[in-house]
Amino acid sequence: MFNLSFFNKQIVKYYLLVATIIVLTLVIQSITQYSLKKQARTALLINIAGKQRMLGQRVLTNFYECRLLNYNYADMKLGLERLYTTNLALQNGDSRLSPLEDQEIQNNFDKLNTDINYMYTNLKNSNSLETVSFDSLSTAVNRFVSVMDTIVTQFQKKAEDDVRTLMIVELELAALSILIILLEIIFIINPAIKRISVQNKKLKEISWHQTHAFNSHVKNIKELRHVLTLEKDLKHKEELIDCIGDELNDLEQVSSNMIDSLGAQSK
Known about the structure:
With about 270 residues, this protein is mostly helical. The protein has helices at about 5-70, 75-90, 105-125, 135-230, 235-265. It has five helices and no strands.
């Protein structure tokens, strides 16, 4: 019988190859999904920061309209509240945003505190609008918008750096995947294919030689049996029977050699 240890080893190696490909594919897909989600969060962050800059400009516009055109103060207060809460969310995070971790960007947010507090404190009460200085509020808003421009640019640069880093990681993983697959082809698949090919060739040679010898002995036995049926001399019959016995022994030896050869090839 065939020794199946070789084939079992090849099956294990094959499963190892498939498992490696699956693991690498899952890792690459996980990083890709993480990259897409991070880019989506970053896009949201930049969008909110850009709107924050617009809200700062609108505060000044609404203030002028309230003072000079009797604009609805409720709209200005709503915009002021959004400006204040969004400023906190950009730093501390909320249901949509993660807490800020970049210290350089945080330093710029710290610069906004004075101007944000000035706007919020002086404009939150409609009765105090008449006492607010146009120049002071304009200066505070302009500083706020300028710093927010810088923050938006920093967010965008950080997003670009993150994307580049993730792209490099993905390319490295892809290169690693290709390298591992090539190594497994070279050291696992090719040797297995060569060994199987050589084994099949030898088995065919063994099969041809052994089958040829087997058929030869069978043919001799048939001819001796035919002669035995025709022979009348008892002494000659005994000799023929002995010849048939020798052929059967040789046939048994051929069969044993075939089994031994097949067993040796399967190891």
